[in-house]
Specification:
mainly alpha, 5 helices, 116 residues, 0% strand
């Protein structure tokens, strides 16, 4: 849990900051994601967030990265799983880059700690 703290400032900057390359992502969020989630209650949103996070970690780090690491160096498995994570989150070019970097960071943490 503590290892995710470095991601918090990035998240806050994305939400509250005015970073030009994130403009398209904010538009997609406002025009597509918000309307889909409009009827969700706070418990619904918490449940969706927790289940998505746990499920994605199990798939990308627990299954894919572990499988790739059987026949390749750990760094290659981390990068491949991180790239796959980014590709599955490619709503925009900037989000693809951010998701790839976050995926690689989480993959490194998995290698370092051995814990999802």
């Amino acid at each position: 849990m503590v290892a995710t703290l470095p991601l918090l400032p990035i998240f806050l900057i994305m939400i509250h900051g005015s970073i030009p390359f994130l403009g398209k992502l904010k538009t997609i969020s406002k025009d597509t994601i918000r309307p889909m989630m409009r009827r969700c209650t706070i418990p619904d949103l918490i449940g969706i967030s927790v289940l998505a996070g746990v499920g994605e970690e199990m798939v990308f780090r627990g299954v894919l990265q572990t499988w790739l690491a059987q026949d390749s160096p750990p760094w290659a498995a981390v990068m491949a799983a991180g790239l796959s994570f980014g590709m599955m989150h490619s709503m925009s070019k900037s989000y693809f880059v951010l998701a790839t970097l976050v995926g690689a960071y989480l993959g490194f943490l998995f290698v370092w700690t051995g814990n999802l």
